[in-house]
Structures are given as C-alpha cells and as structure tokens.
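Hi R.,

Here are the chain sequences for the assembly we discussed:
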Amino acid sequence: MYPSSKKIIRDLLSDKGRSFIVLLAIVLGAFGVSMMTTAYQILGRNLNDNYRKTNPAAFTLVVDTISDDLLQQARLLPGNEYVETRNKIMGRVETGNNELVPIWLFVVDDLSNVQINTYRLLSGKIPATGNEMLIERTGNRLTDIAEGKHYRVTIPGFGTTEMKISGIVHDPGQAPSWMEGLLYGYVSKSFVKSMHLTGISPELKFTIRTNSCDRPTIERQMAKTVSFLESNRIKIIRTEILTPGRHIHQSQMDSLMFLLQMFGVLALLLSCFLIINMIMAIMAKETRQIGVMKAIGATTRKITSIYIRIVFIFGIVATLIALPLGYLAGRGFAQFVASMLNFELFNQQVSHGVWAIQLAIGTVLPVLVAFAPIYRASRITVREALNDYGVSDTLSIKSEHSQQFIRKMGLSNITLLAIRNTFRRKGRLVLTLITLVLGGAVFISAFNIRTSLKDTVNSRFTNQHYDISMFLSEGVNEAVFCASLDCLPIVADYETWGYARATRIVPGKPESELMDVKVVPLQTHLFVPEIIDGKWLSGNAGEVVVNHVFLAKYPDVRLGNTITLKVNGQTQTLKVVGSIRELFSGPTVYVSKTILAQWPAMVGKTNSALISFKGDQTDLSANSAKLEQWFKANQYPVSLVFRKDQYKERVIDHLVVITSMLIMVTLLLILVGGLGLITTMGINMVERLRELSILRAIGVDTPKLYQLILTEGFLTGWMSWVIAVVASVPVSYYLGNKFFEIFFETTLNFDVSLTGILVWLAIIIVFSTIAVVVPARSANKRSIREGLSYE
Amino acid sequence: MSAFIEVKNLTKVFNGSDKRFTALDGVSFSIGKGEFVVITGKSGCGKSTLLNMLSGIDQPTKGEVFIEQIPLHQFRGNQLAEWRGRNLGIVFQFFQLMPTLTVLENVMLPMEFTSRIARSQQKGRAMELLERMDLGALAHKFPASVSGGEKQRVAIARALANNPGFIIADEPTGNLDSANSARIHQLFNSLSDEGKTIVYVTHEKDTALRYSRKIEMLDGQILNS
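And here is the predicted structure of the full complex:
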C-alpha cells in the first residue's frame, strides 16, 4: 500500500471523533434519501398494483332493468371483458354499544367468484344465505364488530334484519372504514329478495380488454355498449367513468409523495452543506501537511486525490450503514402508510435504478460536493501553507462606520472580540449560516405545515354552527317534521334542507360522475359558506353555487357560466353565481329552495336537516342518541347521521399519514440539523484552539474564555435562527400550499407555528452551547504549550 | 561552464494591509555545481525568502532564477512541485514530518509523488537511507515517538529519497541541541562530499560545516559572498 493510502487510513483513525461526525453527516443524508426513495417507490408501485389487482370497472351503466341473457350479450360485445351488476345500498348497522354505524352494502352477483372490483377473503366463509354478509377488514377499527356475530341492519324505508358476519375481506379499492366513517358489507342477491328491496336500478360494471386506463378508449367502448343496450330498448339512467387507474386515495398518496420528495431533497441539500463545512474544516487543519507534501513534490492533483479518496471511503462506509437502515425505515414507513390507506405491500423490492441512485448519493455525491473545497485547499502555495499558524490577522469588520458603531455600543473587550471573531471568516460564516438556516427553515416549515393543517381543519368546522347533519332516504312532510323538532327539548336550532344526487350534462360528452346537490334555505345561519369567488345564493331559482372541488373537476366552468344538471331524470340549467371552499367534500352544488318549484316531487318536503343541540359539546353524544331514538320512534327513514365532532375526527384521520410523515421529518431534522449545528460550530471552534491558547497565555481566565466562545456561538446561532424563521415562511407557504393543492385542490390556511420557532430556538441554544463548550473545555485542559505547538 | 544556480536581480515585495515590505532587493549571485553554500544573516534579513525563491516555494516579484539553466521563475504551481520532487531535497527547521506516517513511510512519500524510483525499490531505498542515518531500528516508529535529532535525520533521509542533486536546508539545527546539531552537520558535510549542491541557511556564526562559500545578508541584500 502506498504511503499516501496509509496516511488516509491513519488520518481517519487518528481523529475518531472528527471521523465519526463526518461519517454521521453522510450517513444521515444518505439515510434520509434512502428512506424517502424506498418509501416512494414501494408506495407508488403498490398502491397502483393493489388497485389494478381489484380489476376496477372501466365504466358503469345504471339501467332501468336488464335480463341475464342481454347482460351476457353486452359482455360479448367486442372490446368488453367482464360485466357484473353491483348495486350499492345504504344502510345502518347497530353495533354492540348501541351505535348506529352507516354501511354500504354491495350486492354482488356471485360472492365466491367476483370478477370486477374484487376483494380477497381473509377469514371466515362466503355467505350462504341472504342474512349473511362479508365485512371489509378496516371496519373493526371503526366500531365493535366481529366475524361470526349477528348485527341488526336497517335499510331506510325497508326495515331491519338480523345479519351475521360470515367472513372478513380485504377490498383495497375502498378507503379504510375508520377513515370514512362507514362499514363496507358484501351481500348476495338473495339479501335483496329477503328484504324486499324495490326501486333498485341495476348498476352494470364493465371492464374492457385493452387500454383500460385510457379515457377516450373507455368512452368509445361505453358509447358502443350504451348504443347496443338502447337498441334493445334498455333505458340508460346514468353513465359513469371514474378517473381510470386512480385509487380513491390517490390524491392523499400524491400529496404524501410530494412531501416525501421535497423533504428528501431538502435533507440531501442540508447533508451536502454539512459535508462541505466539515471538509473545509478538515482541510483547514491539514494546511501545513499539504504545504509539506507540495514542498517534497506532490502536485495539486495528487493532493486532491488523497483527500477525495478519504471522502470516498467515508461515503462507502456511510452508504454501507445508511442504505440498509434507510431501506428498513422506508419499508417500515411504507408499511405504516399502506395500513393507513388499506392496501397491501405485495412487492417491497427496490429497483436496481433506485439502489443505484441511493448508492450514488451515498458515495459519489459527497465526493462531488467535497471536490471544490478540497481542490481549493490543495491549490494553496507552499509558502502560504507553511506560514499558516492557525491564527488569522485579517480584520473582520472593515468599514470604519461599523467599527465606530460597535465601539459606541460600550461593549466589553471580550464581547467586542467575540463579535469581530464571528465575522472574521466571512466565507465560513456564510456556509455555517446556510447549513443552520436550511436545517432551521425546514424544521420550522414542518411545524408550520402541521399548524396550518390543524387550523384549516378547525376553520372548516368551527365556522359551522350545527352539531349534526342528517339525511332521510325519502322526502317527508316538512311542516310536520319541523313541528316535531320544535317540540324536542334538546334541539336548540335546526334548518331543513334538501338533498339529491345529480350528474352534469354536457352536450356530446358522457354524463358526469354523480355529485351532491344541496337545497339550502334562503336564510341559512347554521351553515356558513366560505366564499372564494362571486356571491352566495340570493334566492333566485336559476342560481347555483359550486364548491372548489366541483371547479377543480370541471375546469371549463367559470363564474357566470351556466351548467346543466340532471336530477332524478330531469334536467335543469343554472347560472353559477359563486364558489365556496369546502374541504373533505366531493363535487357539490348548492341551490336555494325556490328551485323546488321546478322539482314537484320535493315541494313541501324535506330529506335533510342541520340540527344544533342545547347544552355544550359534552352532551353531544347523549343528545345524538336521544334524537336517533326519537327518529326511530317516529319512523323517520334516517339513512345517515353525521355528527360534526365525529366527522372532524375522520377528517383528521385522513391527514394522519401526512402528519406522521411531518413528525418523522421533524425528528430526522432535529438529528441532521442538530448535528449540523454541533459540527459546524464545533469545527469553527476547533480551528481556533491555538488562538484560545494565545488568549490564555496573555492572561484571559477561564470564565472570560467561556464568555468569549459562548458569545460567538450564540451570535452565530441567533443570526441563523432569525434568518431561518424568515426563510421558513416562503418555504412552508410553498410546500404547504402545493401539498394542499395536490390533496384538496385548494390552498391552505397558512399559519406560522410559534412552537416550531421556539423549539428551534431551544435547539439552537442547547446545541450551540454543546458545540462550543465541549471543544473549548478540551482546549482548556491542554497546556498552553501544547495549544501553541503546530504538530 | 554555466553555473548550477544563477540568480539575477531577484526582488520580492510583500504587500501588507497598509504598507509594502521589500524582503529581497535586487539580489544577484551564482552557485556552481557541488558547491556547499551557507547563507547567514539576522532574523528578517531575507534568508528564508531567498531560499523560497531557490526552491520554487515562492515566486519572485522581479528577477530570474535559473537552476541547471531551468528558468524556475517562469514555472507555476504544479510544474514547480514536480520539479522539486525530482530535483530538490528540502530540510525544514521544524522537520515537517507527516504525523500519521511511520518514519519509513515518510521517507517513501516523495518517491510515491514522483514515481522516479520503481515502486518495488522504494521500500528498499528508504530503508537504505534510514540505515545511513542510523535510523534503521526506528523505521516503523511514528514521528511522535522519536527525538528531535532523529526527526531531523528522517527529514534528511526524506530529502534524499529521489536522489536529488540539490539540497536546501532552512536552519535544520535551529531546533536541536549541540550534539544533534553536530550530527546533522556531519551528514551535510558527507552529502557535500558526494557532490550534492547544498544551500544551507543558518544564523549560527560558528558551525562545523565544511562549506565552500558563505553569503551574508542584511535587509534583503547581499553584504558579501
């Protein structure tokens, strides 16, 4: 082995503390990137895989009636692959604690042989009778249900029946029950017969043979199928094409992926600055050795190669440590997200490409970022290098005005020295500040986004003055209903609304997906719309207000445009007068009750209400239960009751993946940022140990020495903190809004987290104290002679 | 016959923050091959600056330096480093050994940089040089565990690693006791006997060196040579 190679190895081993810190900086950067890229790839691939494996329907046709024979003929049309009927019935399950939990019951053609929107039986058995059902696995986290037990299921308007859970299934096509606040059940057609359910229009689900994710292909195939059915005198009530290949929680995943990418890049950037800082410090200590090597014949290239090899060895070792850990952490995180979003990780392999990227980032990137400082240090002339005594005599603050200003402040000599020392090596100070600011800004940003999320969710609910919203399966006499509610002592206030499902009609295009239509009383005070454009409803029957989700889905719609909606087979053209922001909602349109004149079936009726209770929030549960009993006693066909507090919980549950990721990022940043703080400030101090020895030699006592170095440390830390607080605002504003746009198609209520700012300040104080006191203490322990010697 | 070292009108000016300092002021002299020249003078007279010019460690502000007719003043960074590695051996006052290399490896290091000596022979040659310096037993020790005199002998062995014809020594005994100084003087005398051209800076008035010429400097100029 060449002497230079031996020098490398022994240099690494001779200063174990320094080597450990450099290694840790690279390990943390590589770990962060490895974890994020691993999670990114596993999650991205598996969500799609899970969804594709369910063989999702390409399009859905709701028809008035159809025979099995004609259904098979439709399936045999060129291009179609499978067809099944799959009706969804809304019901409510009475669980152990007398809770009425909403349930979607999917009526499946053949429970044991599902071809479209498939699920997997995890335990139990396929229902043999109409009084048995399968339940999606995430239901047991929502409420107290178990396989083999019997539960009372009510179908509004059709009565109640006892049903047994015969088995548990996993349906990755559905969002988790606990997140959505409803159960998913799977029943056979005999359930429909046993409950005498009528008025159900068959929903035909089709898959196609080729290009199943290409919308134009799907549209053409659907048009062909519609035409065939219509030619056979089948009435098409509604058509539907869900965004092809897009899982119900794809936007959640997309926003998570975005944050993973962004924080991955920021962690990497931070790690790069950390490496640069440390390499600069190492090179500063090596100056004289570089001079000697040049004096005895080493060229700049040779010296550069020696130190580059050191960094490369660091990179290799760091990668060997970071990659397996990053992979495990990434897999763990992916597993956590998968369990949150109800999908399974079939394939946890990381592709060769991603391994190559991780390997390159761990080994090549440190070399790349270290090259400039190494090359610069290697270019030093022999004279400069041999004259380097570790004590610079350059002036820190050159401007006479600045000098005068500082003098006039009446500071002690030690404080003055500390201020001047801080600004003496400006290049180093800038690098230190960049590293600290980057760590601080990202750390505070993670807090800011969490706080903004919390605020946005809170504002969604605190502005609404009702406690529950309820829906009936059919319209009831409004006057009677109101009179009854007036008599209820627990009710403080209420509003009767109307509710329907509609599709948007655009000439030459298939009907849209279903959307909610809410019929609003003119003077609503329980519901407070957050208007983002235009105005609220004025009572004109031709007006409509849409929510931001509607606008995001139909970007062709602008304020002042007219839209045509089809409700219960009737079309209505309305003018868009305003838009509101409505988080955690599907596309929804709001119309005033005056429109009911044009929908005679609903005149004088109501099928929805907002109710507020007397008393405080602690009575909410008891009041809801009392109201439910009252509904039951009066035989109102309640299909859904949303308690605002429970709904808020579910909304927060939707964000749990994001908030946990932010917590994880925060923890990682405490490590990386704290390490950055300790190393950059500590190394600055180590470089000046000789200077400290000189101060001791001329009589500066230990308390004054500590005053000097702590002032320097705090000054640097304080400057970085101020800049980080300022820098965190645009960083978190951009990241938060971008993530929110992906997730909710709207902007975030931006808020600054005081906690984040103060926690970072605490970290700065604690870590900068450690960073300067530890090396200074060890310097103090050495004799002045040792401190002043060069070698 | 041309001189081994030719210095013409050599000037070096250092620019301080508020004033200029002339370290060498139009110095001219020549040294023949195999000469043993001692440069003396008070501290700050320009001895070390002159040595830096002769070794290519620093560039002159004005003037010319030719070593074996090679115009050193025209060379830049890497050219100078390569030239030094092949043609020059330097001995410093403070030894300047690599602390994480053994004595043997310190001597091998210049050979690695220049590749002038085949790799298979580098270790043997380094051992030979150490034996000559009576340091064979210390070959595998680190600089921190050998004495000052031994360190300086290692530095001389290192200076001889690539068998240069020209040796520069900057106060090599300045940090040593008299016994060790005498030993170092002996070594330099023997190197001179072998025909090496030596430029030796010292501020000692009486030395046991068998030098052929003495150049005395004062305030950046040569008093007599």
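Residues 702-744 of chain A form the longest helix (43 residues). The two ends of chain A are 25 Å apart (CA to CA).

Let me know if anything looks off.

Best,
T.
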